[in-house]
Design goal:
The chain is mainly alpha-helical and 93 residues long. It is built from 3 helices and 2 strands. It is elongated and about 55 Å long.
Length: 93
């Protein structure tokens, strides 16, 4: 695995600012990105994320979206998986 074999850098804004400074001669490649939302702690905190997902589901139900459908047990037919991050492949040691 090479040093640039990643496409998403998930760190706090302070860490990203420290690491990716012009004087460090380290830049992101065209296919790489970082979390850049000023209030990312509000969007990525698991305690608040559940609240956000419930709010989105209620909005979808009001709009009559097929994504808000439920089965006979009351379980959601579609699940929001955006809060699950993929497992990071580890380099062979």
């Amino acid at each position: 695995m090479t040093e640039n074999a990643w496409n998403f850098h998930w760190r706090s804004m302070q860490t990203i600012r420290k690491v990716f400074k012009p004087r460090n001669w380290l830049w992101l490649s065209d296919n790489q990105t970082g979390n850049h939302f000023p209030n990312h702690h509000e969007r990525t905190g698991k305690d608040l994320m559940g609240k956000d997902i419930k709010g989105c589901r209620k909005e979808q139900e009001k709009e009559g979206s097929p994504l808000a459908g439920k089965d006979e047990n009351g379980e959601c037919l579609s699940r929001t998986l955006s809060h699950h991050l993929p497992a990071c492949p580890r380099a062979a040691t």
